[in-house]
């Protein structure tokens, strides 16, 4: 197992442990992903890594070959299988170290880390981000290009143009220009195109960045 694979497994195990404690009301809580509940996000993490061959083609056809639509529709459909099936499939994916076909390991890490935040934040659950998990996910998102950027709320370069984004608690920075400081968690959400509070961003470039989210 490579170092990156070990980080992915650790992040998946941590989320699985959290999901196993949720009540029905928490499973039904809206996540940070527009239109998805916590249960839908978990379903995506459970079954997307196993998509192969004919099933992958069928999903593309259903979604009219539009990545965001494919991801959104498939997660809601898989979610209907129920929380027990979702947890069991997540255990299998975690044990096998599975990842979607033709997707780099760094992108698999982003899925694990960012979707965990999509779930944890609305539930008020706080977990410190391990530096290796944060840096791997942040570096991938900050340099994402088409088509990866489609799943990160659009071009990341445009969002950060003329700004220097700094993670206070992670010894990480990206870009040049007016500085924007935030926690590592908030930085990841910004990079992934998720909503954050304007009060979470500090520095001379904070208002500019907030206006782009």
Verbal overview:
- With 213 residues, the protein is mainly alpha-helical.
- Helix content is 55%, strand content 6%.
- The chain contains 11 helices and 3 strands.
- It has helices at residues 3-19, 24-27, 38-47, 53-62, 67-79, 83-96, 105-123, 131-142, 156-160, 184-191, 206-210; strands spanning 163-167, 172-174, 178-182.
- Strands 2-1-3 form a 3-stranded mixed β-sheet.
- Strand 1 (163-167) and strand 2 form a beta hairpin.
- The termini are far apart.
- The model has no long low-confidence stretch (mean pLDDT 89).
In short:
The chain is built from eleven helices and three strands.
Largest sheet: 3 strands, mixed
Ranges where pLDDT stays below 50 over 5 or more residues in a row are: none
Radius of gyration: 17 Å
Q: How many helices does DSSP assign?
A: 11
Structural class: mainly alpha
Strand numbers in spatial order across the main sheet? 2-1-3
Helix content: 40-55%
Q: DSSP strand (E) fraction?
A: 5-15%
How many strands appear in the DSSP assignment? Answer: 3
How would you sum up the global shape?
Answer: globular
What is the first-to-last residue Cα distance?
37 Å
Compressed to H and E, one letter per element, the order equals HHHHHHHHHEEEHH
Report the average pLDDT across residues.
Answer: 89
